[in-house]
Amino acid sequence: MATLTKNEIKITTCETSKINSIDFSNLAFGQVFSDHMLTCDFKDGKWQSPEIVPYGPLTLEPSAKIFHYGQSIFEGMKAYKDANDNVFLFRPMDNIKRLNISAKRLAIPELPEAYFMEGLKALLDLDKDWIPTAEGSSLYIRPFIFASGEGFHASPANAYKFIIATAPSGAYFSGKVKVLIEEKYSRSANGGVGFAKAGGNYAGQFYPTQLAKDKGYQQVIWTDDTSHEYIEEAGAMNVFVRINDTLLTSPVSDRILDGITRKSILELAEAEGIKTEVRKVKVSELVEAAKNGSLKEMFGAGTAAVISPISGFGFRGEDFEIPEQDNSFGLQLKERIVAIQTNKTEDPYGWRMKV
Amino acid sequence: MATLTKNEIKITTCETSKINSIDFSNLAFGQVFSDHMLTCDFKDGKWQSPEIVPYGPLTLEPSAKIFHYGQSIFEGMKAYKDANDNVFLFRPMDNIKRLNISAKRLAIPELPEAYFMEGLKALLDLDKDWIPTAEGSSLYIRPFIFASGEGFHASPANAYKFIIATAPSGAYFSGKVKVLIEEKYSRSANGGVGFAKAGGNYAGQFYPTQLAKDKGYQQVIWTDDTSHEYIEEAGAMNVFVRINDTLLTSPVSDRILDGITRKSILELAEAEGIKTEVRKVKVSELVEAAKNGSLKEMFGAGTAAVISPISGFGFRGEDFEIPEQDNSFGLQLKERIVAIQTNKTEDPYGWRMKV
Ligand SMILES: Cc1ncc(COP(=O)(O)O)c(C=O)c1O
Ligand SMILES: Cc1ncc(COP(=O)(O)O)c(C=O)c1O
């Protein structure tokens, strides 16, 4: 695959920075965008050289396939700044690898890893002042690829756009969430695209999530689409359950995204002496555990929220509360992972990358 | 819901028509576009008035949700012109109704029917010279809605664009196709969005279809994602099977699109004295019928190709040919439906709409 160094990337800077117009003490998630973005076009059978340009509108033909056939994939990552203004990423090579796994499944040409990594480094160099430092905040990074090629024929496009945009962001969720175990709607099929970060997976979640919200829940726990007997993900996060002192999470599959937070948590938990089990978790087991008091915790895990504690779940019209724990695994593991991400502690795993 | 008449639609015409640059005797499918398009924005909580503007590029922010979360739906229809330059649509009310069924599932605000129908009529009035008349050709009509609202939060957008673009088109497929019965990849989940014309459904089909093409097939026959025992659709078409003199097709479900061609064929077949059965069709039944000679025909049915005959199928490494029939139901029904669509015969069903 093509190589490239950071210095080879053509940069066009914006005339005036928007940074002074942003209230960094009051950031929502992914609502304001940094001054620049990386863009890279696939055309004539290959990915062209990436460039950095001012963040701004895209122009597309109405027949661009993104509008018709949902050919799009994305990643989600974060950049952190420590007290000395050093900038860090967390396991970024896993994001580019997963982007290319998604690309293959969505019939999108794979991107040279160097275009992604060197492009991202150059972008962060330029926009490093946009990385917020307040606790819980970070620069959210959104790499994405979509079909820009034209035509109404339902077949892969011949042109694509890869973009990295960044957004200084506060916390994704505030506080604990109540979830609904979903038995009618599903997120993904066996042999489908659930393991890929494909745009279409998310649009399909909105309506069932809205129905859950109307009932007073904030998120949906997805179950397998065949039997609805097993819990699979929590909204757009992997899901963990603590029964007594064992932390359980479902194995990844073609329906479940191989989350970077999830696998980091599994490793950290082991190191912290927390027993983990990767196995399918039945809804009935969860209900049983909630009833007999052995269900101690439940949380979602993903880049945006890191760990998102769940205060209770609804199932078939009944609500089950999960009582507060003094020694919360979720809190403990979140502290560990955030400390590594933000360079507040040693990183024996080599996960943190200084850029 | 909002009302509107054709004459209330604001029209901005293009300065010079492109029509003379188009070779109408040699049209591909959905590759060239007529002079104008209808556009309509959803913002501030409602669909604004539709307008007709010159067909041309759209401008969107990089954070528009269409690029990230696949929130998009579409329809496919055709306009035909008869010898007296009268213009006809085929069951267009079913398209607007289905568009709104898709909208609901994808958490997209439903569109007032009048905006669709009156907008389309006004557009066809203006661009009627773009409707080709050669046999097998038509003006392909592509209504679509996508999320233009901004933000990286995985939730429904607050702004959408509805567009109708049209493309003078030749036949979608040429000749018979060989199909592969797919047992690994799936198109849709139980409780998923397969019944909706959601963009993401199509992107997910591209890679498995490419694998089938690499093996010498042109299309995939999708099976249910749970057992892979039942045939469900043929690529982006409904699928029909003729065993002896009975025409079979699967019932629609939340995994299978409720095709307008499919239901028209079922009605026409009855009227032609062809026995039909709407029931699940097992792959094993198909293989058995192919072996004992009772499998007489197989075809896909959809707006783009109308009826697309299948010459044989592959299953688990074995190829099964379907011999040519003298009295082909597929051909007979295609003739009937096209005759109605193009005003060459009476339309006892009220399916044809003169615009
Ligand atoms: C469906 C889904 N599951 C899980 C995750 C968590 O993955 P990661 O920890 O890599 O962010 C994500 C992305 O955030 C996701 O979209
Ligand atoms: C998945 C799928 N199935 C079936 C059909 C056929 O539907 P219709 O006959 O309404 O065009 C389509 C659309 O053409 C489709 O996209």
TrEMBL record, chains A, B:
EC number: 2.6.1.42
Pfam family, one: Aminotran_4
Protein's name according to its UniProt entry: Branched-chain-amino-acid aminotransferase
Cofactors, names only: pyridoxal 5'-phosphate
Recorded superkingdom: Bacteria
InterPro entries for the chain: Aminotrans_IV, Aminotrans_IV_CS, Aminotransferase-like, B_amino_transII, BCAT-like_C, BCAT-like_N, BCAT_family
UniProt KW Phosphoprotein keyword: no
PROSITE patterns: AA_TRANSFER_CLASS_4 (PS00770)
Keywords: Amino-acid biosynthesis, Aminotransferase, Branched-chain amino acid biosynthesis, Pyridoxal phosphate, Transferase
Modified residues annotated as N6-(pyridoxal phosphate)lysine in this record: K197
Protein's UniProt keywords contain Transferase: yes
Example of a GO biological process term: isoleucine biosynthetic process
Family: Belongs to the class-IV pyridoxal-phosphate-dependent aminotransferase family.
Function: Acts on leucine, isoleucine and valine.
NCBIfam families: ilvE_II, PRK13357.1
Entry's Gene Ontology molecular function annotations: L-isoleucine-2-oxoglutarate transaminase activity; L-leucine-2-oxoglutarate transaminase activity; L-valine-2-oxoglutarate transaminase activity
Catalytic activity: L-leucine + 2-oxoglutarate = 4-methyl-2-oxopentanoate + L-glutamate; L-valine + 2-oxoglutarate = 3-methyl-2-oxobutanoate + L-glutamate; L-isoleucine + 2-oxoglutarate = (S)-3-methyl-2-oxopentanoate + L-glutamate
Pathway the protein contributes to: Amino-acid biosynthesis; L-isoleucine biosynthesis; L-isoleucine from 2-oxobutanoate: step 4/4; Amino-acid biosynthesis; L-valine biosynthesis; L-valine from pyruvate: step 4/4; Amino-acid biosynthesis; L-leucine biosynthesis; L-leucine from 3-methyl-2-oxobutanoate: step 4/4
